[in-house]
Amino acid sequence: MRDMLGREEVISVEKALQLVLSNISPVSPPEKKLSIEDSYKRILSRDIFSPEDLPQFARSTVDGFAVNSSDTFGATETFPAYLNVAGEISMGIMPAFDLKKGEAAKIATGGMLPKGADSVVMVEHVQHIDARMIEVMKPVAPCENVIMAGEDIRKNDLIFMKGHRLRPQDIGALAGLGITEVLVFERPKVSIISTGDEIVPANCPVNLGQIRDVNSFNLAGLIAEAGGDPVKRGIFRDDYNVLRKVIEESLRDSEMVLITGGSSVGTKDMTAKLINDIGEPGVLFHGVSIKPGKPMIGGIINNKPLFGLPGHPAAITVCFEQFIEPVLGRLSGLAENVFRDRKRIVIAKISKNVSSSSGREDHIRVSLEEREGEIWALPILGKSGLITTLTKADGIVVIPLRKLGLEQGETVEVRLF
Known about the structure:
alpha/beta
């Protein structure tokens, strides 16, 4: 079998992706300083070390009484430990007194332990004898019900490494340490070039034979979610000179260029020729053993990746996940993490038989449904040009290259959108 350019065979997804990644020379993206409020999902350009301990003092995790744990050893309901109440600890200030042996201090959750205390007895395990004395009916161990100074983070600890994508909990940790600004990588610009004489803008009426632009909107959202900065260049007719000009302009101010439509074999297929004509090394592959998305083109010009994407919406989404998102991660400065996407996978049973041809990787859109406590994946069958095969789907099931299909009831992994 020969591929789109006359070569012997279309290549696998893994080999195609590796071809692109191995031909991109490492370039550190520009960095900028942002407030932490504006840094959600941004990628750190520097390691961050803690400027202080967190917390800076030992504090209670429960409402109760701060004690020296040794004063409670052996305490039971029948033989409680009797302690004098030295006072009450106010929230947000340092205690004005130290605990002596045989003393306790009333404390609320988050309160600072006074000197002489190393644990807190929960209020449920205390009985009041009077205003000045309590009996403790359960012993506590040292540091029980207490977060010690520096127990969460110690001063000079490496908190986050360069290349880490900041999550909400990360921003919270930075705020807790008083770090209100961070250095992050700039988001790589990704140009979207829509081609096709039949494509019209979404806000225009259509004549018979025309279709509104769907793909640039889908791609822009995918790029933004993956940490890129989408730049929609517009819709261009299938003209060599017109397309060459916009591709060259895009290469000057973008880190990646995506060309939708024009990747299928035909008289108007110019994407591969344009990539080869504009710069080196040019086209790296044309045709991949994947469905949908087989006609995809991948290339490099002056260390910048270009992809020629099929015109069908489902194919674009599949190709984005398999090729563009990993390359975008590399361009973003994102550190590699093999476990990053595992949380996006749901284990389910396939609801019906699905056939597949050997020699290609099939990506089946599915919706999820719960039946009697089990999760089932329902194939959404239809041509890759139908946008509803995506809008009705929760994710994708991948049938590997050499597998001939799936049997009803077979356990599958669903990659969630």
